[in-house]
Design a protein that fits this description.
globular; five-stranded parallel beta sheet; alpha/beta; binds S-adenosylmethionine
């Protein structure tokens, strides 16, 4: 999706909330470096930001704005830096309640430029590794089905048109 956005619009502005170590962007860093795309990265963990930033060459870093802190507290700043052609929120919703997901999506949608996309992930409720994750790795996430995600998006009302939503399971058990 990041590739497609930069191909469609080489000067695209991309927001990644809860960016962590920015593995997604770093995995296509050479392609990113060859465009004029600009990035806004947010994470509540300052160490993750320092780590991610250390992997960006200066000519890419100068097109990046780093906004540390809890996304719920930094939304105003993130909105000021928009609008965005792509908003990514990978690996965040698994930690949020339905109410928080709805609220956040409702606000992120308002930061989107025309023709833009909002991408987020959520661990699936039929995740076959759940028992192993919870009991061996002590890693408890809020899993959701496609219906659960649909319900989270209902309160966003007109700001999220259902015809424009696509859910893509990355595996089926
Ligand atoms: C599983 S990692 C995902 C990293 C990256 N987005 C990815 O897809 O690989 C989750 C990240 O969310 C961050 N995070 C959790 N709650 C957050 C919040 N309320 N605001 C901003 N970042 C948050 C954590 O610090 C962590 O770096």
């Amino acid at each position: 999706m990041l590739r497609q956005t930069l191909a469609r619009k080489p000067r695209a502005k991309v927001l990644s909330v809860a960016c962590g170590p920015c593995c997604d962007v770093r995995s296509i860093l050479a392609e990113v470096a060859s465009t004029d795309g600009s990035f806004v990265f947010n994470d509540s963990d300052e160490d993750a930001i320092v780590y991610a930033r250390s992997h960006f060459p200066p000519h890419v870093d100068q097109r990046c704005t780093w906004v540390g802190g809890n996304v719920f507290n930094r939304l105003r700043r993130l909105a000021e830096l928009g609008p965005y052609d792509l908003i990514m929120a990978g690996g965040l919703f698994d930690y949020l309640s339905d109410r928080q997901c709805s609220w956040l999506v409702g606000h992120l949608v308002q930061m989107m430029a025309p023709e833009s996309k909002l991408f987020f992930t959520n661990i699936a409720s039929d995740n076959p590794f759940r028992l192993c994750m919870e009991h061996i790795a002590c890693w408890k996430l809020i899993a959701r089905s496609e219906n659960d995600i649909g319900r989270c998006l209902v309160p966003t009302g007109n700001r999220c048109r259902f015809g424009s939503i696509a859910m893509r399971p990355d595996w089926r058990s």
